[in-house]
Request: fold
Amino acid sequence: MVNPTPTQQPLGGREDAWSVTAPQASSPSGRHPHTIALIGAGPRALMLIERLTAHHAGAAHGRPSRRAPLELHLIDPHPAGAGRIWRSEQSPLLRLNSTAADVTVFPDASCELGAPAFTGPSLAQWAKDVRNGWITLAVAPDATTAREVDRLQPTDFPSRRLHSLYLSWAFERVLKRAADFGIAIRTHQDTVERVVTAGDRGPEVVHLASGGVLTADAVVYLVGHTDAAPSEESAQLAQASRELGLLYFPPAYTADVDHSALAPGQDVLVRGLGLASIDLMVLLTEGRGGRFEALPGQENLPEEHQGLRYVPSGREPRLLFGSRRGVPYRSKSMQTLGHAPAPLEVFTRERVLAAADAVASGTVASGTGADGSDSGSNSVDPWDFERDAWPLIATELHLTHYRELFAHHAERTRGGWEATRDVIVGTPWDSAALRGHLLAAVPLDVDRFHVAHWDRPLTGLATATRAEVDSLLSAHLRTDLRQHVDQAHTPTLAVWHALLQIHVLLAESPRALWTQRSLEHSIPVVWQSFFSYLASGPPPVRLRQLLALVEAGTVGFVGPDLSVELTRDAKGRPAFRAHSPAVAEPVTASALVDAWLPATNPLTTTNPALADLAQAAGVVGRRIVVEARTGRVLRPEGTPLDARWALGAATSTPDAGAFSRPGVNALPFRSTDRAAGAIFSWLTAASRPTPHLVPSLSTEIS
Reply:
């Protein structure tokens, strides 16, 4: 646990961490409470409640606030704390793609916040504290999860059930702290249908699916990922499948889908090779009774270095994977750098802010061109992501990889770092000159990094059979594991750190810097896909399991740039036909799974609250438009929508996650803090109409 500083209050962990006295919030007699409705009660709501409590509590050292009392309403049909995605009612086989040490929902001393941080343990520290008896759980976990708590190490990838237990505990602790400061909390296990502003100045009237109605001064949307109406293609595939007797599973959260109709030995086409497809792989193999064993002679090796073999149960279908890239997401890195990550050198905050100022003023500041030089013009256009930002980002990633390689693995390089750095900085990122220099400076292919090749490693592939594709992909997976697990390949981890810094910088960049196309497509789609593929992949063990399944014949690969159509197989039966232009041999199957989450789009979402908000808010690039710093919802014309805030995946700021790593001044904590501060500033700026609660099912926590 992070030790409290004068601007921190401990929250959870050892019992003595509760020794800080929390005064009751004082308020003049007769003052009505400010009321805030939170739509969504998952991890992001937990973080917001902690920040609202801190801002309400006032200055450091526990001085009581002079603000009016505060009342919060949490509305979610799923369990508070964990929410839908992290609820405990899912297979114990499903895991996070972050290690236990890299998961926390509590801010710490590294966070730059506008109010004191109520600190708490990371998931790894929490499990240790439970084992040591310093934390007592209100509800005993199931036997499988209890064993996991007993054995969990900081570098383990926890199950989602264990994470759910951590979130539930954290949620109760945050609510207790809120109650200590006089904040009334009510939870509603319900769904928001719509929100209506009463009159010109409110209050906001929140209509629930149960028929209940409540009113609030402010409403915050924290809905996360939602389901969506089927796309035109999905609707057509579903209808044709029903008519022809085929099986089609549209995009969905994998844990919510019943795949029992997929028969043992049945060929199943799977579109998508991201995290949803990995979950599907697990549920249809281990989840059906198969098991993985260490290869003979490797039983005593560290787990991350063991090769695996798959022992089938006989109940598995045969999974045939394909996607645009044709390869799975890159493995999560397990090395350690041994030094602080290097700051960005080319795509820097200073350059981005200077460019934004130049766009706003209409004049070019020094060094704001895409190549770092003056443009020679007296005016400047908004940045286009591909034209202006991407060359800088690609150069930044090349610098990061080779800087680490030359500094810490110099025996595998030639010619010295300064010469290579000069070529990277002074040569276009995708030029033949750069590629030629890297071939000469770095003899081993496994040590080379080029953004274009890492993004699309199968570019130029032309093979005759799927057996060749399986062999090629198996070799690719072995190399990827080596690059992300072996300590000899720390440049991969350095690139991961740079990607995180770039992602945060894009999230916090002024919207006015970018062209409309960048805001609507390039950043939320192109960049997000690239970032997720390189930085948010599965645990290494999942790729080792995938290799074992290929060897067992349970999994095969179809190729990149996959297309699917309805056809008939060799026996004249209706079938799905999958074809990759890189592979001469097509594949037919009687089942198709689209293994990805439904697109986040407030215009097609099935979440009624989000769909309702989209009627009043601006929507750009399938996202609700919000102020980048505060999450304040904006109207189509760009003015603030009174009393409405939104945070998370459905908004126009790139999603930074609902929890984060400790000790890194993480964006989720800073953005949530800014939102909490903005909400309080707005509430206290003027007298608001007195809200009142119309009776509905609720539980008060005190």
Summary: The longest helix spans residues 385-408. The two ends are 26 Å apart (CA to CA). Confidence is low (pLDDT under 50) at residues 1-29, 59-65, 374-378, 689-702.
